[in-house]
């Protein structure tokens, strides 16, 4: 999680304590995109309230606040644990060598993206059943991850 996301979470904790910040990212240096969630769902009014609470950030960025949608971002160990059994895409910071199933004579190939079923999530890593078999990925190595539609 980045410092901007932490700052946004702290700001919302007082006025909108049930709003969860799933992801805050700066795109192209100018657009701040914030995905939020709420136990009762996210509607336009909630997005507007959050936008108003982050008013000073609109001076630095073009601000987009939205619900996660079907391809919900996964950024915290609790997110991964909640969705064990679902399909996800996990992109890593550094390529990882993976041996294709049934290709024992071939050299492992370097892969930056894994798609498959989330089968486990500890405090330190997530395990995904991907094309190359089971892959354990430390959270510190994850660049971006999200659920994918089944």
Written overview of the protein:
With 150 residues, the chain is of the alpha+beta class. The chain has two domains: 3-66, GMP Synthetase, Chain A, domain 3 (2-Layer Sandwich), CATH 3.30.300; 77-147, SH3 type barrels. It is built from three helices and eight strands. The strands form two sheets. It has a five-stranded antiparallel β-sheet. The chain has a three-stranded mixed β-sheet with strand order 1-2-3. The radius of gyration is 17 Å and the shape is elongated. The two termini are 26 Å apart. The model has no long low-confidence stretch (mean pLDDT 90).
Key descriptive features of the protein:
150 residues; alpha+beta; GMP Synthetase, Chain A, domain 3; SH3 type barrels; 2 domains; 5-stranded antiparallel beta sheet; 3-stranded mixed beta sheet
